[in-house]
Design brief:
Elements: E1 28-31, H1 42-51, E2 56-59, H2 66-83, E3 86-90, H3 93-99, E4 103-106, H4 112-119, E5 124-128, H5 132-141, E6 145-149, H6 163-173, E7 178-181, H7 189-194, E8 199-202, H8 204-207, H9 212-234
Parallel strand pairs: 1-2, 1-8, 2-3, 3-4, 4-5, 5-6, 6-7, 7-8
């Protein structure tokens, strides 16, 4: 547990630059992992993602307790603020609040309404959903964006893949931006965007890549091409 009174919700480092959530920051959303061998810790993956042009970084470190996670989250929050990159902490609301992260991403086992209350209006709340009912509930609870698992992936074995149809189903019932995650690489990212996602979230596509900076740049190029094409089609 993080030292201090959990009821003292005002003793927190303020997040910067999150007055109004910009869905564009979800375009290339890199989730960290330390599971891909020596030299690929969370810090290394996050820094490579930032250098490669990621618009968002999520610190996902289930192997670390709060006391070990907090200093890392605080460091990455500062780095991401300096790079104008959205920084999200996975699952650990207390760490997100105390580190100065821009927000937190929660699952269905968590309480998004309570998280919204504690985060206030200036920080970002993401929620993983598996279908229309969960999407509507998350929006009502105050989520800013939703995550949908597209394809199966060994990095998140418990997540139920919903396919491209799942992206479309969620997009149809909510005004919130949706991020696809699970089995996404540069080779199939365009399909996820075309299905209605505002961005693509990846883990192994960057964390396990031979050159994670180059892998991020390639994904960034896909998102930029999609947005340019969509913009041209609307004119």
């Amino acid at each position: 547990m993080i030292a201090g009174d959990p009821q003292d919700l005002n003793r927190l480092i303020p997040a910067e630059g999150v007055d109004m959530f910009d869905p564009g920051t979800l375009g290339v959303y890199v989730v960290t992992s330390a599971a891909f061998g020596p030299g690929r810790d969370h810090r290394t993956v996050a820094n490579a993602a930032i250098e490669g042009g990621a618009t968002a970084v999520q610190l996902r470190a289930p192997e670390l307790d709060d006391d070990a996670l907090l200093p890392l989250a605080s460091e990455l929050a500062k780095v991401c603020r300096g790079a104008d990159v959205l920084f999200i902490v996975n699952d650990r609301l207390d760490v997100a609040l105390e580190s100065g992260a821009a927000g937190v991403h929660l699952g269905q086992e968590d309480d998004p309404a309570d998280a919204r209350r504690r985060l206030g209006v200036d920080r970002v709340l993401g929620v993983s959903v598996a279908g229309a009912d969960e999407a509507v509930a998350a929006e009502r609870a105050g989520a800013d964006y939703l995550g949908v698992t597209v394809w199966s992936t060994p990095t998140k074995p418990d997540a139920v893949p919903r396919g491209l149809e799942g992206i479309g189903e969620v997009v149809e019932v909510t005004a919130l931006p949706v991020v696809g995650i699970g089995g996404i690489f540069a080779s199939n990212a365009m399909l996820v965007l075309e299905a209605g996602a505002a961005g693509v979230a990846v883990i192994s596509a960057v964390a396990a890549a031979t050159d994670p900076v180059a892998a991020t740049r390639t994904l960034t190029g896909v998102v930029e091409r999609f947005r340019a094409t969509r913009g041209a089609a609307r004119r």
